[in-house]
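Q&A log
Question type: sequence-to-structure
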Amino acid sequence: MKKSGLVLSGGGARGAYQAGVLVAVYEIAQASGIPLKLDFLSGVSAGAINASSLASNAHDYKYATESLARLWSEVHFDQVFSTDSLTMGKIGIQWLKEISLGGITGTTPGRGLLDTTPLRGLISRNMNYEQVQSNIDAGHLEALCITSIDYAKSATTTFVQSKNSVNSWDKGRKRSEFSPINTEHIMASSAIPLLFPPIKVNERFFGDGAVRNHAPCSPTIYLGAEKLMVIGVRLQSSTAYDLHAESTDTAPSLARVINTILNGVLLDAVEQDVEKLRRLNEYASAITPEQQRKVSLRPLDYLFISPSEDIGEMAVQKAAKLPRVIRYLMKGLGSLQDASEIISYLMFDPTFCSDLIEIGRKDGYAQKEEIIKFLLK
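Response status: OK
Response body:
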């Protein structure tokens, strides 16, 4: 069979959707008598948590998918970021001091609006990093890739844990670094700009891997994947609603502006990369094998699975579950509807995440035939 790559995009709490899809993929493979083997696991932001969890349990995909779904179904706000008023107040005061006195006192390392110390503990408790290397050595997978943005170099850095035989790359603002993956790498990849603080890894500060990551599928391709399964976290048709929105003389709220930025920076890349794959496949199929070799181009099988429901709208419906201090901040930015994407990133609520898991599982089964074909290639 062709070597396979799994690409998991970011999206905060939306990562629960990916867990549901992966449960369906395993169940479909099991029922069809097809061994499930994913050679290259690549994750960004919330996808970094999911990819790392899968890598640590790649020797047993039944346990891997079930434990991942269990993790998301039990997650709660205070396991991801501090929600008490005292901590939030201290962060707010610090922001004001740095903004108002920065010219006098000089700058300090970047901060986020939220304290993610609890997330570090959650990740550490649920990851077995020694088992990741054991699974690589045993051939259960070839590599785990975690992508972050290097703030100093403004470059996309993919940390790769593998055997020495895999490829490396350095393409301007996209480069790889070989390193055993640990909690700091995952924290760095998950550090949503402004909301979560940058994370220091090897004396450099990193943030959410979706920032400036225009080709999220590329790490698995560089490493040798011949087919890709890509799991997104946004309803595809929702990208069109802005085009038909009624014009208004009212300036957009800050929440609306941040929503648009988050969509463009964190969610658009994987969809654009899949569209690029589709076009390249069309071109490669239209030329001869000899021409393909001359231009170093070959068709690449891929399967793209994305939500059948609007996760942002679902989050708004459950906004009352947000911690009081977070609701207060959201209302200060604009209407809850305008802040739908922000809310969906932060909705680390068991009922919300369980709903996403179930939608992911349903969407996986909706593409059962495509999944079987993908696994058999």
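Response note: The chain has a mean pLDDT of 87.
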